[in-house]
Amino acid sequence: AEKSYTTAIDLCQESLSQNEGNKQLGVKRCDDLYILLLNRGSLRLNNNRIKDALQDLSKASALRDRPDAVVSQNLARAKELNGFYAAADKDYNLAISMTSGEVNPFWLRSALVKYQLGDIKGGFDLMKRVENRFPEITEVRIAYSVFMAKNGDEKGALSKYLELPDIQRLKYIDDEYLGNKIAWPPAVINDLGKLTSIVDKKPVVVAPVVVAETK
Q1: Tens digits of residue pLDDT in 195-208
Q2: Which of 24, 32, 141, 153 has the smallest CB count inside 10 Å?
Q3: How far apart are CA 39 and CA 29, in angstroms?
Q4: What is the pTM of this model?
């Protein structure tokens, strides 16, 4: 899929270059370059090519002639994954302002970015709306418990956390899952660790005991 997008982007850029300053009658202009860059950038995000994704999505945003919620939320995600949290926060805010009538899953990411930046109140306000909209999603419930603990309600946070079955909680003590699979910001992962250490411990890998056969 990425190869197809790259080919389309190259052809579109070539077409724009040839037609610049010399608009030919009857020749269709390539006007969807930002869409192609958006699609390739989103694909690259999913494939963990975060630097390449940021380049594509930044170009898509620059080419868009007006604010666009889809472009903004994807660009925010790319900036977040590259560690540009303040810039990501601005783009998330823009995307949310354009979709405020309906809570979307990306609002969770925005709340976590605010947590990373120290805006606990702003993040928790968003988190409450996300939790109200998606109360059964494990990631939402875990994140909500972290916000509760940060707000001083450790008892409530533990209660919320322990509502989940053990098998669902175990993923959230796995550094690989937190840091790479769902890629939570460092401050959230750190504070989740304080919460999980109270009730859950990382599994200890025990080498199997080999018993010699007797003949």
Answers
A1: 998 886 654 444 45
A2: 24
A3: 19
A4: 0.85
